[in-house]
Design goal:
Elements lengths: L1 E2 L2 E2 L21 H14 L9 E7 L6 E6 L5 E6 L2 E3 L6 H6 L3 E5 L3 E7 L1 E2 L9 E5 L2 E7 L5 E7 L11 H15 L5 E2 L4 E5 L2 E5 L3 E2 L2 E3 L5 E2 L7 H20 L9 H25 L6 H8 L4 H9 L48 E6 L5 H4 L1 H11 L3 E7 L11 E2 L4 H6 L6 E5 L5 E6 L3 H9 L4
Parallel strand pairs: 1-10, 6-17, 19-20, 20-21
Antiparallel strand pairs: 1-2, 3-4, 4-5, 7-15, 8-12, 8-14, 9-13, 10-11, 11-12, 15-18, 16-17, 19-22, 22-23
Helix pairs in contact: 4-5
């Protein structure tokens, strides 16, 4: 981050812990969409382009939803579905049809974005740069393929015109580069450019019967920090495993009630962080020196990198510890299951690469892993393949049941275990803890799970 030509701050993601990816990865949205389309096609599904939603109407008996669609050839089609998810953006038709309020405010200022080749830029090409001045903020970061993503925010009246004057945006961006780096930088014609308004808005409800909202249809935030797409994908991940479990008859429909309960406060956390970053980068009415002072606050680096990366968000305020279980220090229900190496070949997240719950038991003593076999048999009897079990033994273990994973460090035990007891962790399909208890209290985990799974 540069302010008035002086480097003032640097967000360092290499300090992130319990992840294999302590860095920023920039990817064009069209590349992300292409990956998702290929995944859909592999499952026999296609995106229907040029199709517009006219209305969504719940069945009178509550058994489904009828969506009315306008097709590219002008025909009208009615589609009946068990559930509908509105992922249709800030101006969501689904949200409007449900009559849900989208409360919030509009950020002041004018914002433009473009992807273009930038030549002669005297900045490292492996970082995301913010150039902050009283006249505005310019963000520059290199994208795959030789282009750079440029975002320019300045005081003024925001517009959201139906057509974008790409030549004018190029001219204005070139003028900004000339102010920062006189005579050094040349901006080629953008491959793509847009101008837009920024909002901080959130729907109080993410669900109405069998209709859900996700992504920008449910909440929008400042682009500061670039958290929008990740936020929408976390909505989708949270809802999709629950919906899949209900539709396949593995879980009670009441499981879907937890989507709104968990994602409304989680998305509010994202919006708050984005607002904090917006105040630093794009609050053009506040002197730059005052904005930089916010960056220098103690703990800013750790807090912001944790939240931008998505690793720091938790559902612990809405997922209680199972009733009757002793509360352990450290990780708790609602926390993200951290990725940590078990041994040189495998890590915790490798054990979660399946669509079911995982019961992870962490043992201080080699002998205790044998004592859990009755528990594992009981779990299989009740839940079948809907729960997988993984036992992690300490480094000095000589003999253990088939399927036990031997650790060669104490990392898993330090993070997931306890100093005075063996521990059982129930991890949901989305990688968050449903509970973490002493092994002796494992029955409380299974009792809770019995209220979710059929």
């Amino acid at each position: 981050m540069f302010a008035e030509s002086d480097k003032t701050a640097r967000l360092d993601f290499t300090g992130l812990t319990n992840t294999r990816f302590p860095h920023v990865l920039m990817s064009n949205q069209n590349q992300t969409e292409a990956i998702l389309r290929r995944r859909l096609a592999a499952r026999g599904q296609l995106v229907r382009w040029g199709t517009r939603l006219i209305s969504v109407v719940p069945d009178p008996d509550g058994g489904g939803v009828t969506a009315t669609l306008a097709l590219p050839d002008g025909r009208i089609e009615e589609v009946h579905a068990e559930y509908v998810i509105g992922c249709d953006g800030t101006h969501s038709t689904v949200r409007r049809e449900l009559g849900l309020e989208f409360a919030g405010t509009e950020y002041a200022g004018r914002t433009r974005m473009a992807d273009a080749v930038v030549r002669g830029l005297p900045l490292d090409d492996d970082r995301l740069h913010y150039l902050v001045a009283k006249t505005g903020m310019l963000m520059v970061t290199e994208l795959p393929g030789g282009r750079s993503r440029l975002v320019f925010s300045e005081p003024g009246e925001a517009t959201a015109a139906a057509s974008v004057d790409v030549a004018a945006i190029r001219r204005d961006l070139q003028a900004v580069f000339d102010r920062w780096f006189p005579g050094q930088v040349t901006l080629e014609a953008p491959a793509w450019a847009t101008e837009f308004k920024q909002y901080r808005r959130q729907s109080a409800d993410y669900r109405s019967g069998r209709i859900f909202l996700a992504g920008d249809a449910s909440n929008v935030r400042s682009i500061a920090g670039g958290m929008g797409l990740n936020c929408g994908m976390l909505d989708a991940i949270n809802l999709s495993w629950k919906l899949a479990a209900v539709l396949t008859g593995k879980a009670h429909p009441s499981l879907l009630d937890s989507y709104e309960r968990e994602r409304v406060p989680a998305d509010a956390q994202v919006m708050a962080v984005a607002a904090q970053l917006h105040a630093i980068l794009m609050d053009h009415h506040t002197p730059v020196t005052q904005r930089i002072a916010l960056v220098e606050n103690a703990g800013f680096q750790t807090s912001v990198t944790s939240l931008i990366s998505g690793l720091g968000y938790t559902y612990r305020d809405v997922i209680p510890t199972p009733a009757g279980a002793r509360v352990l220090a450290g990780l708790t229900a609602g926390d993200r299951a951290p990725d940590v190496g078990i041994n040189a070949r495998i890590g915790i997240h490798d054990m979660l690469d399946h669509p079911n719950y995982t019961l992870l038991t962490v043992h201080r003593r080699a002998r205790s892993v044998w004592e859990t076999q009755a528990l594992v048999r009981q779990m299989r009897q009740h839940f079948g393949d809907r729960v997988r079990s993984v036992s992690v033994c300490p480094p000095d273990t000589q003999l253990a049941p088939t399927g036990t994973v031997f650790s060669d460090t104490n990392h898993v035990h330090d993070l997931y275990g306890s100093a005075d007891s063996d521990v059982a962790c129930l991890i949901r399909p989305d990688g968050y803890l449903a509970g973490r208890v002493c092994l002796a209290d494992c029955g409380t985990l299974l009792a809770d799970l019995g209220t979710v799974l059929i």
